[in-house]
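testing teh design pipeline on a random one, pls ignore if ur not involved
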């Protein structure tokens, strides 16, 4: 594992920190990209993890792509059109799928600028909390490219087509307060409060039955592309499974007894 991604687990919560602050945490860096893909898969497989936080080191959340690599044709930007296509498929697009498919609730603690693929990375998460210093930009056209990481699918689902089109076509950044008004983030806090706010939210989530959290997330994901009849069918199957668990019985008893439940994922 690379030191370009810092991983800290405390109890049931994992905090991931993009750790290339000198370059503003570009997720097109192959080492960082691979580390994120690997970590998302490990988190999903680890039943002790109930929530995760993703943030950036330094003053930026993520600049998205490395502009010098774009200019010099390095990394995923190297080679002919077919080579670049393969680079995107094996790199940033594989990352997008891995983050989107992560089974546990994922909170983006956006500490600063989230541009291009960095903006889209926040949209791959379930919840976004922003520092008052955060800014968001879908600025691909500003560097003569298009959202190659799924941003054209992700962003409209978070803020609607009209506002997503405005961000995409102008490439203009929006500040944290505008992001809050548009529904891109659910909360704005002062910079020094960001990680504590994200951690408090993660702790609140992690108090709930872990397998049911994962199933609830999966239903929400599927609901973005399935019709209601298909979602109802899947929900019925999940519900049947939930009713057989010890955590369901514990949750009901805890509510009746006016106490906090103790859940073991069984």
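output:
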């Amino acid at each position: 594992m690379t030191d370009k991604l810092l991983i800290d687990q405390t109890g049931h919560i994992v905090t991931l920190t993009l750790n290339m602050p000198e370059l503003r945490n570009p997720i097109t860096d192959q080492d960082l990209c691979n580390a994120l893909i690997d970590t998302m898969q490990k988190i999903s497989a680890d039943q002790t993890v109930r929530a995760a936080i993703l943030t950036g080191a330094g003053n930026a959340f993520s600049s998205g792509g490395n502009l010098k690599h774009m200019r010099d044709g390095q990394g995923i930007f190297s080679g002919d059109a077919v080579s670049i296509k393969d680079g995107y498929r094996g790199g940033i697009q594989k990352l997008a799928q891995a983050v989107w498919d992560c089974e546990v609730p994922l909170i983006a603690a956006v500490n600063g600028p989230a541009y291009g693929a960095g903006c889209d990375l926040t949209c791959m998460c379930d919840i976004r909390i922003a520092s008052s210093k955060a800014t968001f930009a879908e600025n691909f056209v500003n560097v003569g490219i298009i959202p190659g990481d799924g941003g054209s699918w992700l962003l409209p689902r978070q803020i609607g087509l009209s506002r997503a089109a405005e961000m995409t076509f102008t490439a203009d950044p929006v500040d944290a307060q505008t992001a809050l008004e548009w529904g891109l983030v659910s909360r704005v806090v002062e910079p020094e409060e960001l990680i504590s706010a994200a951690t408090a939210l993660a702790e609140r989530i992690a108090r709930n039955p872990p397998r049911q959290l994962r199933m609830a997330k999966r239903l929400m994901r599927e609901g973005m592309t399935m019709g209601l009849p298909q979602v109802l069918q899947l929900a019925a199957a999940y519900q049947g499974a939930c009713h057989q668990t010890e955590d369901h019985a514990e949750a009901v008893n805890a509510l009746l007894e006016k106490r906090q439940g103790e859940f073991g994922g069984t």
